[in-house]
Amino acid sequence: MSDQNVNKGRRRMLILTTSAIGAVGVGFAATPFILSMMPSARARAAGAPVEVDFSKLDVGVLLTIEWQGKPIWFVKRTDAMMKKLGTIADLLVDPDSDVETQQPAYTKNLPRSQEKYPYISVMIGICTHLGCVPLDKFPVGLASGMGDDWPGGYFCPCHGSKFDMAGRVFKNVPAPTNLVIPPYRFLSETRVIVGENPGEAKA
Questions:
Q1: DSSP 3-state assignment of 150?
Q2: What are the extents of the domains in the chain?
Q3: Which end of the chain is more exposed for a tag (fewer CB within 10 A), N or C?
């Protein structure tokens, strides 16, 4: 084989190798730009909206997701849970959700939910006393371990605060106000964006 053929072969190999390395380099360089278009964990913690699909959530079961570093609770309430909400007003501190800072205006109603999907409960799962995370105590009566008159709801194990299935606080407990409801909007019957109000869809 002549020196000329050897040099051509080496040149071809060097060109192919350089091209391959360049392509890999472009791929690595492009990756940060692609990732920058996706919400980072830091952005989500800072308040970026979070989309939640709860289509597989069973009725009467609590689903917890995270937004702004806080636990957000989703519950598909049963008919029995909904009926109880209207029967315990005299046990509650703020049954009509009059403290405006605890919920958006569009959830200031009996179930504290959006009117189109009243059975769907969305709340921040942090006790309004000292920031503990309450436990779900959905069964009514003795089955909950909360006493035979328990209507179902949430119990904070830190200092004994109690909330009903709409997150309304009971009287004579340390927590002063109802659980907070975050801004949220429905994309469909089973998909929600937490962190955006209705009508705030981003272009």
A1: coil
A2: 1-38, 43-194
A3: C
Edge-first strand order for the sheet with 70-76 is 62-67, 70-76, 120-124
Contacts of 151 (CB under 8 A, 6+ apart): 84, 87, 88, 91, 140, 164, 165
Please tell me the predicted confidence (pLDDT) of residue 57: 94
Say which CATH topology domain 43-194 has. Answer: Rieske Iron-sulfur Protein (2.102.10)
29 residue type, one letter: A
Q: Is 32 helix (H, G, I), strand (E, B) or coil?
A: helix
SS3 of residue 10 by DSSP:
helix
- What kind and span of H or E run contains 194? strand 191-194
Q: What is the pLDDT of residues 120-156, one digit of tens each?
A: 999 999 999 999 999 999 999 999 999 999 999 999 9
